[in-house]
Amino acid sequence: MNQIKSNPVKTILVIITGLLVVYLFAKLDVLLNIILALGIIGVFSPYLSKKVEFLWFKIAYFLSLIIPNIILGLVFYFFLFPIALLSRISSKDPLFLKNSSNSIYKEVNKSFKKDSFKNTW
After folding, report:
1. How confident is the model at residue 111 (pLDDT cuts 50, 70, 90)?
2. Main-chain phi, psi angles of 50, to 5 degrees
3. Which residues of 11-30 are buried (b: 16+ CB within 10 A; e: fewer)?
4. Quick one: which of 18, 48, 58, 71 is 20 to 30 A from 97 by CA?
């Protein structure tokens, strides 16, 4: 498995920047305390910086297991499902998926020669 070249100080800087943006919209004073604590950790303690980065990557991994499923579910229920309902309501043969014959194989009456199998592509 490949190791990610990481820089804990840059990771903490990115976290702080993200929290500042959230603070600008949410105006939660608790975020300022967290930002200050992370800034002090990033400047003075390389050991704690690595621990914060490790925790941040674990949270990102956990979210990568959940978020794609949520997005795919939203796409299905808000995009594909309504299209399928509209198609079923508006036409007798929805999406032209009904097969009127008993088999999907077609009968072909063709004689094959030996040369037909030499260059199949």
Report:
1. confident
2. -65, -35
3. bbeebbeebeeebeeeeeee
4. 71
DSSP state of 4: P
DSSP letter for each residue of 47-90: HHHHHHHHHHHHHHHHHHHHHHHHHHHHHIIIIIHHHHHHHHHH
Grouping H, G, I as helix, E, B as strand and the rest as coil, residue 20 is helix
How many whole angstroms from its chain centre is CA 58?
17
Share of the chain residues as helix, strand and coil, in percent rounded to the nearest 5: 70, 0, 30
Residue type, 45: S
Task: Match 């796409």 to its residue by tokens.
Answer: 75
What is the pTM for the complete model shown?
A: 0.59
pLDDT digits (tens, 9 = 90+) for 19-72: 999 999 998 999 999 999 999 999 999 899 999 999 999 999 999 999 999 999
**Six-digit token string for 73:** 């579910």
